[in-house]
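Page 42, continued from yesterday. The earlier attempt failed because a stray header line got pasted into the input along with the sequence. Redoing it now with the clean sequence only.
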Amino acid sequence: MIYFLILIGVLALSIWLGIEYMIGVLVGMMALMLMSFLSEQEDKRAQKERDRKRAKEREGEEYEFVEYKLPALDEVAAAESAAEASDPVNRQIAGVPVIGQYPVLPTGCEATALTMLLQWAGVHVTKEAVADTLVKEPLPYDHEGTRVGGHPNRAFVGDPYTEESFGVFHRPIAATLEAFLPGQAADHTGLSFEELLALIDSGRPVVVWATIDLREPQWVDRWADHLDPATSIDWQSPEHCMILTGYTATAVIVNDPHTGQTEQYPRELFRMRWEQLGRQAVTIQQLART
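This time it went through. Structure tokens are written below.
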């Protein structure tokens, strides 16, 4: 139908512009329509051939149907009791919001983790406001033959809104926490793992540093402090920051900005990664929550 209408239009136009000129146009249009028609037919033929091959491949396939039966309530209770007996320790702080860092803050896991702590403490603040409050220093760059850049224990190296940036460590995070909750920041970096869990026992979530998905950290970059070239910074990747909210006998419970969910990670593996990233831990004073 569409081709017929096009031909009628071309013929009408040919009467207006002149027969000889429009004959060439008409021939060209007919050639294009023929090519389009042949292309459509070829696509249909190819699709039929693919369907035929898939049908042939499926011939002889066997499917197993498994009947699913809901367990009885006493079986569920017995299973839960067994799980509790095998992992009796369970500490978790309630009410800590879960916030994902993406897509706004691709390298802003630290700002996002701190936002969760601040909101739990009763501060109405967004992750963008926290990211904007962080002091920033430049990414590594060449200066008179030396690669220099910001120091993560003084400021965020780069910009948390960009994918090319690095990150920030405990001191600037504690300083930013202090800006929102004056007199309430508590930097416990350097404590033991048992002392870290004791902070959870006291009812306080803790901003902690490890790696994304607890992957093995790799030394990937080195530069000199742009304000003190005698000091070098070695960067481990994939550096990551989360908020620790609880633990069991075999796992830690964290709100992970990377996944945007509450996660349980193997306790000993988390301990290893946390220690590799410097045993960093930032939280609030005992009586800070409002």
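Notes: The domain at 86-284 is CATH 3.90.70.10 (Cathepsin B; Chain A).
Reminder to self: strip header lines before submitting.
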